[in-house]
Here is the input.
Amino acid sequence: MLRRQWVSAGTSLALEKAPRRGFPRFPVKVPLDVIALCSGVPQNLPGRCTDVSEGGVGAMVAGELAAGQQVAVELRLPNVGLPLRARALVRYQDKVRCGFEFVGLAAEQREMIRYWSHRQTAEAAAAVLEGVKEESAPAPAEAPAPAPPKMRKIRIPRRALNLLIPALLVLAALGWWRWQWSWNELERGLEQQAAPLRVPPETMAARIVSKAEPVYPEEARRTGTQGLVVLDVLVGADGTVKHLQTASGNPMLAKSAMDAVQQWKFEPYRSSGRALEVETSIAVEFRLN
Here is the structure.
């Protein structure tokens, strides 16, 4: 008989006092997905992000979490092509409001957040400046205002102007090209180094095309050994099992479980019409009749 369950790292102890934040927070309203273990079963908790920084996120989550609990979070920042997926610790929860601290955030992911935050800051500053200009604009007077005094014109030699304009254009083009190249390199690096998407076991269970039942080891049968073997599995974009390893279980039973699951075939997991390589967990139970 087979059972599936999601395995994650154990939760750490709850902190009595939240640490001082080391990064500025920026408000943002985007959907947030939280995956947490509830009674040993993975559960997807929908939420909405309220702010984000390089250290973590604040959110409103429709579910109960505990301080110190380890979860997986996923969100997509506006105007950033790739989603941000990371492991995090629950730092606090007050009703539906939660605070999450990132754990092991990659350098490329930090650069993603910095790029987005710098862009947000620039847009906010531009909006404030525009508002100041509108407020400081004089109201139309009933009588025509006196003509301003004539200003002395400063003449720039045409030769200097002809040299200055191309130089400025070249510098602007080089700056834009450098920024575009850096960002393209960052996106390519994220695509190559980003961890495979973690898919809940029940989702992949619905995509099983064919599977082989494990053979009960004779030694385990003779000694009355039984129990649950949990495997971490990497499923390729073509639906075949590319890699698997034992997460927990009796070593006497693990080999038989791995030999069976290695032959399983899944329907490819797709996102936006593209087949993806995904991670999941499979639990194989050995029980003597």
Summary: Confidence is low (pLDDT under 50) at residues 1-19.
